[in-house]
Structure formats: C-alpha cells, structure tokens
Amino acid sequence: MKIICVDDDPVFLSILEDCLAAQGYGRVRAFQQSVEVAILAEAGRLEADVFLLDVEMPGLNGIELCAALRAAPGHEATPIIMISSVTSRARITEALAAGASDYLSKPLDPV
C-alpha cells in the first residue's frame, strides 16, 4: 500500500512514519508542503492508495488540499483521512464536504 502523509510538523510526520512502519506499511512518503502535493497530484505524478492529511497547514490547508486531490486525475476515490487536533464539528463537516473519507483526532490512538 502506498501511503502519502502531509503535515507541516516534521516531528509528527516522523512519529506517523514510525507507527506505520511498525504496522508493516513500508511504502510511506511524507511531505511538509501541501502545495507541493497539490502540484504533483494535478500533474498526475503522485501515486497513492491513501492520503493522510493534517488540517491546519500553511499554504493550502488540509481541507483545501483534500479538495485539490479530489479534482486531480486518478484520486477521485482515493481514501483521504484527515488527522488534526482541531475537533470542532464545523471543521470536521467542512473536511467531509471537501471529500475526506474520515477524520482522526490527534493525538492518534494506536487502536
């Protein structure tokens, strides 16, 4: 499985990569720049079976990136999981309306 993680926090990205590797997921690409991911996806140069996106990021926030990924060729149905410490109902609704498949709260629960 090809997993793309996008978060502006390098510490969280490292923790997320370690957790995924411990679960047997070795094909993980991490990005700190949401705009870079949007450009690669729009150009059709981003392969992923699932996206894990932070909500609050500079440049494009995670919700805007989610919408951009949904508009990119080949990612209309790719699962997109939002991961954030923001737990307001309005933000979760906004993420789901942009095309997110699910929403997880930080800190992540291993279960």
Structure described in brief:
The protein is an alpha/beta fold. The protein has four helices and five strands; from the N terminus they run βαβαβαβαβ.
Structure report:
The chain has 111 residues and is α/β, with parallel strands linked by helices. Helix content is 37%, strand content 22%. It contains 4 helices and 5 strands. Strands 2-1-3-4-5 form a 5-stranded parallel sheet, with helices on both faces. α2 (34-42) runs parallel beside α3. It is globular. The mean pLDDT is 94.
Short key terms for the protein model shown above:
5 strands; 111 residues; 4 helices; globular; alpha/beta; five-stranded parallel beta sheet
Describe the secondary-structure layout.
Elements: E1 2-6, H1 10-22, E2 27-31, H2 34-42, E3 50-54, H3 62-71, E4 80-84, H4 89-97, E5 102-105
Parallel strand pairs: 1-2, 1-3, 3-4, 4-5
Global mean pLDDT: 94
Oligomer: single chain
- Uncertain runs with pLDDT below 50, 5 residues or more? none
| Category from helices, strands and their pairing | alpha/beta
User: Main beta sheet: strand number and arrangement?
Assistant: 5 strands, parallel
Into which percentage range does the β-strand content fall?
A: 15-25%
Tell me the span between the first and last alpha carbons.
19 Å
| Count of helical stretches | 4
**What spatial form do the alpha-carbon principal axes imply?**
globular
The number of strands is 5
Going across the biggest sheet, name each strand in turn. 2-1-3-4-5
Report helical residue fraction: 25-40%
Helices and strands, in order, run as EHEHEHEHE
Rg (CA only)? 13 Å
